[in-house]
Amino acid sequence: MKFQKLFVVVVTFFTLTLFSQSDKVYRAEKDKIHNLIHTKLKVGFNFQEKELNGEEWVTLKPHFYETDKVTLDAKAMVIHKVTMNNQPLDYNYDEYELIIDLPRKYKRNEEFTLYIKYTARPEKVKQKGSAAITSAKGLYFINPTGLDKNKPIQVWTQGETEASSCWFPTIDAPNQKTSQEIYITVPQKYVTLSNGKLEKQTINTDGTRTDYWNFTQKHAPYLFFMGVGEYEIIKDKYNNIPVDYYVEKEYAPYAKDIFGNTPEMLAFFSKITGIEYPWNKYAQIVGRDYVSGAMENTTAVIHGERAYQTPGQLIDENVQENTIAHEAFHHWFGDLVTAESWSNLTVNESFANYSEYLWLEHKYGKDEADAHMFEDVEGYKQGQNYDKHLVRFYYNDKEDMFDAVSYNKGGAILHMLRNYLGDEAFYAGLNTYLTDNKYGTGEAHQLRLAFEKVSGKDLNWFFNQWYFNNGHPKLSISYDYNKLRKTVTVNIIQSQINEFKFPFAIDVFEGSKRTRHTVFVEGRDASFTFPFTKQPDLIQVNADGVLLCDITENKVLSDYIHQLKYAENYVHKREALLEIAKHQDDKNAFNAVADAMDDDFYKIRILALENINLINKYSKKSVIDKIMRIANNDSKTLVQAAAIETLGKLTDPALKPVFEKGLESKSYSVLGKSLVGMYYIDKQLAIQKSKTLPLEVKKIVATPLTRIYLEENDDEELSFIASNVMAGMFLSPNKKIQSLYKEAFDKIGKSNNTEAIKNLSDDIVAKGIQYKQYNFDKVGINLLRQMVQMQKTSNPSNKENNLKAIQIAMAKLLE
């Protein structure tokens, strides 16, 4: 699973608690009393009541010991009948577990099939869901009665972690594997998607159609999937395997632009694992109001609406591409071999996370991959994650495992392991692990044994410190130069509680000449001495950027200038650029930042443009001319946009032609930045352009438009701004954007605009429900109460209608 990131903003009227303290209950793998063998379902939907009417034939056998009872997970259902061979069976049901009395004791080699007729009631389910999931109700009806004319009717399922048992009785544990058949009956206008192959479609006399989906291989119950809706199916293929994209009609022309790299991903992942894609199809569907980023249901991946993009966005970047790779790699790590328990989630999610790096490196180069790894590592470091083990047998709730340790840190750890073993041994180890455990389960120990078997190296030390312990090295670095002997000694002191050992790359720079030394650090205090021909200009530690660590060292401005010019790793260039940018009153520093605008890697160019100080004595016309050329001609539209934003800060009428050209760009990022730049030199033209934009474009460039409309005090546009406030305040990592939308919230809260009040209130309700896991329902109540106070204080003429809209929203959140 890939999560949509939520950036927490603490404002004056609320505080969020994202992490609870782990308790001391040992979280074991679920005991195998019975094994699932096969699951056959026939389902239909009651859209009005948001219910599923189902029949199930589930085949099981005792795992080892003979038994005369079966316990199935079945949440919030109505059980109508349980039989075996047409004979009714006694059972007990408490709305969580269905305990069935068998007619006799069955031995471990005896299979039996139970028939269960039931009604699933997902709205009655009461259980916590994975990060950002409202509640794990398993089955989601979207606009089921069609009242919202701006939203299609859809049904989709979400099984991870243990929510498939909200729509069919099963043993809902990742260490179970079953084949499946599903007969889905829907109105004929709808398309269906499930795991495996669509074998047959039958038109029924009542205007419905029954689709028969057959999945003959084994996978875990949480990977079962159903999707229903009015979709266009865009067909693609990998070798002879169907690769299909299920999208709403509006996005059909762009489906291959969004998902079109999928066949190449499947080919690449097949190559590096040495295991050809092991399933009979690969389909991807986009679900409205989906509760996360995406989910790796076997052969039937679901994505959230963020996947929907138009050419004006895709020309800048495909923001879903990493997620597409992530879910594809899960079809090896997670689907083919599944974590035997949530404690071992790392063997699913750490690999899916690292696949993003592997794909970016393969497709776009090492700089792109390293930049992505840096962002992931920062996400781990900035959270409350330091004390958590990667493999955790003690946690408060299984959903707590879905965090920046299992994902981000786990991916970084695999990167270190790959670096230590070398590519050939690393990929051979992946093949051994997958081959030995295919269609079964795995844990970290099996992973270690696979790598040891291939490489011949003992890896207990690596797994003990990175998988079964917490934290990361915190290093203090100092240097001793001996000019007589022409040597430099690098001193490394570890200050964290747990002592680590690790390979460590150190570069010695003599001018542009770089000499790489790879050492192995053991102990809290280590020193390594290297020769030099002339006094080094720079010593770069963790030179390959592989080690997950914090480093403290004393560097001066000249060190950083040399580092920016000659270091190869993105992280070191980035670090140097940001440090140099603090000292642009120094001519050499300013020139270094200006030179970085020509860097080969576009993210360094963007960073230089964002940090160049054009208001100083060294800001020559030549530098501004360079930025103008970048704004007009850079190969990356995101760099063009950054250049336009930088030029906009000058508020120079002479730059009007740059902004005029940007207003005609196909890139929405360039268009948005050009609108703001133009606004400060020709307000009338910028506002006129903004008013002519189609609504779908306005939504995409909402942030620059919000900035303009707020400065203009354009109350007519408040209703448009209102629908973007919550996303801007809570989903953006940019503090300036968060502040902008907080200002918008305050303005709308005090306004006389009833439509804006209603739009904002509705959005608060939607986000409050969607992010209930983060207590956003409580946050929403606080926000609505804040709006009530604002209305009472400002006392607008429409106060009565405004308060009514707020009260209706509050009632929905309090339900």
UniProtKB/TrEMBL annotation:
Where do transmembrane segments lie in this chain? none
- Give residue ranges for domain Aminopeptidase N-like N-terminal: 38-223
SUPFAM superfamilies given in the database record: ARM repeat, Leukotriene A4 hydrolase N-terminal domain, Metalloproteases ('zincins'), catalytic domain
Protein's UniProt keywords contain ATP-binding: no
Q: Does the keyword Hydrolase apply?
A: yes
Checking InterPro entries in the record gives: Aminopeptidase_N-like_N (IPR045357), Aminopeptidase_N-like_N_sf (IPR042097), ARM-like (IPR011989), ARM-type_fold (IPR016024), Peptidase_M1 (IPR001930), Peptidase_M1_aminopeptidases (IPR050344), Peptidase_M1_dom (IPR014782), Peptidase_M4/M1_CTD_sf (IPR027268)
What are the UniProt keywords, alphabetically? Aminopeptidase, Hydrolase, Metal-binding, Metalloprotease, Protease, Zinc
Q: Which GO terms describe its cellular component?
A: cytoplasm; extracellular space; membrane
GO terms of biological process kind: peptide catabolic process; proteolysis
The protein's annotated catalytic reaction(s) are: Release of an N-terminal amino acid, Xaa-|-Yaa- from a peptide, amide or arylamide. Xaa is preferably Ala, but may be most amino acids including Pro (slow action). When a terminal hydrophobic residue is followed by a prolyl residue, the two may be released as an intact Xaa-Pro dipeptide
EC numbers on record: 3.4.11.2
Superkingdom: Bacteria
| Cofactor(s) listed in the protein's UniProt record | Zn(2+)
Looking at the record, the residues that make up the Peptidase M1 membrane alanine aminopeptidase domain are: 261-466
Q: Identify a single GO molecular function assigned to this protein.
A: metalloaminopeptidase activity
* Similarity annotation: Belongs to the peptidase M1 family.
Q: What is this protein called?
A: Aminopeptidase N
